[in-house]
């Protein structure tokens, strides 16, 4: 295909504004899949994505479309996730494109992640085509949304496509706009190969599959390639495209999007953002924009059954292959035994990985409360990065601690400004700015500790604004805070996996609340279990789990054996998510209790 007839674009939007549905309609309209093959949101292939209705991994598909000029165009669509945790995925996908469809819900208007994604697209110099979606909704107000796009983003919205992915309105107009407005790729077919890896995937049959956008040169089977960041070499066995299933073709040429399979031995050798080049005729330098990934949130993952340790390691390695942003390393806990410290982009990411481990790999897991990375300056001049509260040195050895801060952007109807401010203040936020987007919606920015965001900021933001607020945040800096470690002792023994780092002013309150919460969570036993919250040697709260009065089975009057078995099975079920620490059984919920304290 002539490079002039290639168009590469992404769809960007706030979550739920209709990216995936628009992608479905484009695939359908261009006849890439027959009606029978179409399933709603075909690009959201992962079970979890379907169930939660969100896109986790970017996906790519090649469409063919005959434009108004009668010429056939190759249109490569890359679907991106819209959630705040997956900015890195979005950014890599955008680097593979020349244009972006900016989808805005006609009833909702611009939301926090609409803006975040637009800024990313502008950073990559993409041609942005505004699409106002869901115009079928009774509450749709396309003119107001167009006005917002012009006022807030500064884009010309006069030619915005008015669409309803649901009703199939505006789909042809979107395709025509892509053909007419998105620039064709540039690049030199005869130059040394450089191809951007924007995603990768592990396939049980083919092994590692790298998703690439060819910037210069060509890729053909038999070529010897090198990845420029990891410096690993491999021989190409297959190249192909996404329709959206993998389809082999003879070569991938300049401007095209597709996949490469080869003798890639180690899964970790394929890094998203890396550049593939010809090992015999390498490009002078890698493509710009590669950055390593910095997880923002860490937690411990432990197998409930310690014999599952190797299985957990295996599963994490496999997941990492499909998710360059997942980090993990072995860790041991006195309470929980052998497990892994895992780094995530954010809480949703953490949730998704946990669920995939349990669902796809059949693992029973105990997870500890998430933590940010603290920079601890010791009195002896040493600087430590602490991502696990249990590893915080004793207070006497600490000079001061810095914690990560973010710029949090909240967009909300103006009725809720007070609620947002109250919550943000309580979360140690510092007010930065407030701007009206239109007569009844405002954008508020706060400088706020990341640890407070990961506690329960988003949930509470949603509930105090009746679901109307949208949130985006980005790491800005580290600042010194007065922080202490809050320890929990059960039966007089400290349980390292329950320790948390909290602000000194909130320590006493959180300690009391946590002890009280745990009292309701830890099951009764034949003996009394004291629960203590302590800062250093000082106990600040104490609760007791009373001893069990009588054998639960006594209720079953001996006779009914099936009822007895049912009860035992039920107990066993309940035990599934528990870990024995000394003589005390701690359920999973206990490790997350800190997140549920206001
Ligand atoms: P994404 O998160 O941006 O990928 O959004 P989805 O494509 O998953 O859509 C979110 C929800 O909006 C789904 O329930 C869709 O069925 C619905 N939706 C998408 N487009 C339209 C539309 O044009 N009209 C209406 N009424 N609903 C839509
Ligand atoms: Mg989606």
Automatic annotation (TrEMBL):
It is found in: Cell membrane. GO terms for biological process: positive regulation of translation. Keywords: Cell membrane, Elongation factor, GTP-binding, Hydrolase, Membrane, Nucleotide-binding, Protein biosynthesis. It is a peripheral membrane protein. Its EC number is 3.6.5.n1. It comes from the Bacteria. InterPro entries: EF-4, EFG_III/V, EFG_V-like, EFTu-like_2, G_TR_CS, LepA_C_sf, LepA_CTD, LepA_IV. GTP binds at residues 16-21, 133-136. GO terms for cellular component: plasma membrane. Pfam families: EFG_C, GTP_EFTU, GTP_EFTU_D2, LepA_C. It is an enzyme of class 3 (hydrolase). Gene3D superfamilies: 3.30.70.240, Elongation factor 4, C-terminal domain (3.30.70.2570), Elongation Factor G (Translational Gtpase), domain 3 (3.30.70.870), P-loop containing nucleotide triphosphate hydrolases (3.40.50.300), Translation factors (2.40.30.10). PROSITE patterns: G_TR_1, G_TR_2. CDD domains: EF4_II (cd03699), EF4_III (cd16260), LepA (cd01890), lepA_C (cd03709). GO terms for molecular function: GTP binding; GTPase activity; ribosome binding; translation elongation factor activity. It catalyses: GTP + H2O = GDP + phosphate + H(+). The keyword Zinc-finger does not apply. Signal peptide: none annotated. The keyword Protein biosynthesis applies. Residues 4-186 form the Tr-type G domain. Belongs to the GTP-binding elongation factor family. LepA subfamily. Belongs to the TRAFAC class translation factor GTPase superfamily. Classic translation factor GTPase family. LepA subfamily. Required for accurate and efficient protein synthesis under certain stress conditions. May act as a fidelity factor of the translation reaction, by catalyzing a one-codon backward translocation of tRNAs on improperly translocated ribosomes. Back-translocation proceeds from a post-translocation (POST) complex to a pre-translocation (PRE) complex, thus giving elongation factor G a second chance to translocate the tRNAs correctly. Binds to ribosomes in a GTP-dependent manner. This is Elongation factor 4. The lineage of its organism: Bacteria, Bacillati, Bacillota, Negativicutes, Selenomonadales.
């Amino acid at each position: 295909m002539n490079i002039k007839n290639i168009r590469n674009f992404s769809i960007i939007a706030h979550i739920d504004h209709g990216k995936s549905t628009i992608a479905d309609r484009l695939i359908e309209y261009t006849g890439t899949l027959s009606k029978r093959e179409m399933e709603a949101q075909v690009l959201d292939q992962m079970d979890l994505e379907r169930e939660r209705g969100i896109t986790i991994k970017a996906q790519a598909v090649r469409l063919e479309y005959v434009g108004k000029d009668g010429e056939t165009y190759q249109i490569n669509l890359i679907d991106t996730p819209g959630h705040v945790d997956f900015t890195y995925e979005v950014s890599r996908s955008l680097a593979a494109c020349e244009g972006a469809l900016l989808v805005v819900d006609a009833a909702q208007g611009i939301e926090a992640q609409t803006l975040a994604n637009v800024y990313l697209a502008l950073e990559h110099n993409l041609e942005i085509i505004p699409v106002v979606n869901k115009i079928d909704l009774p509450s749709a107000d396309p003119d107001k949304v167009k006005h917002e796009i012009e006022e807030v983003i500064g884009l010309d919205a006069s030619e915005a496509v008015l669409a309803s992915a649901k009703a199939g309105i505006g789909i042809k107009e979107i395709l025509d706009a892509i053909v007419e407005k998105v620039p064709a790729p540039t690049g030199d077919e005869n130059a040394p190969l450089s191809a951007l890896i924007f995603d990768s995937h592990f396939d049980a049959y083919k092994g590692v599959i790298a998703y690439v956008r060819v910037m210069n040169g060509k890729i053909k089977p038999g070529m010897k390639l090198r990845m420029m960041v990891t410096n690993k070499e491999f021989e190409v066995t297959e190249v192909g495209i996404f329709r959206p299933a993998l389809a082999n073709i003879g070569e991938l040429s300049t401007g095209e999007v597709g996949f490469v399979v080869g003798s890639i031995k180690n899964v970790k050798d394929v890094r998203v953002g890396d550049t593939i080049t010809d090992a015999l005729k390498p490009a002078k330098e890698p493509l710009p924009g590669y950055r390593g990934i910095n997880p923002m949130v860490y937690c411990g993952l432990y197998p409930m059954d310690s014999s599952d340790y190797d299985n957990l390691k295996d599963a994490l390695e496999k997941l990492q292959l499909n998710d360059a942003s997942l980090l993990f390393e072995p860790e041991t806990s006195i309470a929980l035994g052998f497990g892994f410290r895992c780094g995530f982009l954010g809480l949703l990411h953490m949730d998704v990985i946990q669920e995939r481990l349990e669902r796809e790999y059949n693992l029973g897991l105990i997870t500890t409360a998430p933590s940010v990375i603290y920079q601890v300056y010791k009195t002896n001049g040493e600087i430590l990065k602490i991502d696990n509260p249990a590893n915080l040195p004793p207070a006497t050895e600490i000079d001061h601690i810095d914690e990560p801060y973010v710029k949090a952007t909240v967009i909300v109807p103006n009725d809720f400004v007070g609620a947002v401010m109250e919550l943000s203040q309580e979360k140690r936020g510092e007010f930065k700015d407030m701007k009206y987007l239109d007569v009844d919606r405002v954008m508020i920015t706060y400088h706020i500790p990341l640890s407070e965001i990961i506690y329960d900021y988003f949930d509470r933001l949603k509930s105090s604004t009746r679901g109307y607020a949208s949130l985006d945040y980005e790491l800005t800096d580290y600042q010194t805070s007065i922080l202490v470690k809050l320890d929990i002792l059960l039966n007089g023994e400290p349980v390292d996996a329950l320790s948390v780092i909290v602000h000194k002013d909130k320590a006493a309150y959180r300690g009391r609340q946590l002890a009280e919460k745990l009292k309701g969570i830890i099951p009764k036993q034949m003996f009394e279990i004291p629960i203590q919250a302590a800062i250093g040697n000082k106990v600040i709260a104490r609760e007791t789990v009373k001893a069990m009065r009588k054998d639960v089975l006594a209720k079953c009057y001996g006779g009914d054996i099936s009822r007895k078995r049912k009860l035992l099975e039920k107990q066993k079920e309940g035990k599934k998510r528990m870990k024995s620490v000394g003589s005390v059984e701690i359920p999973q919920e206990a490790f997350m209790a800190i997140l549920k304290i206001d």
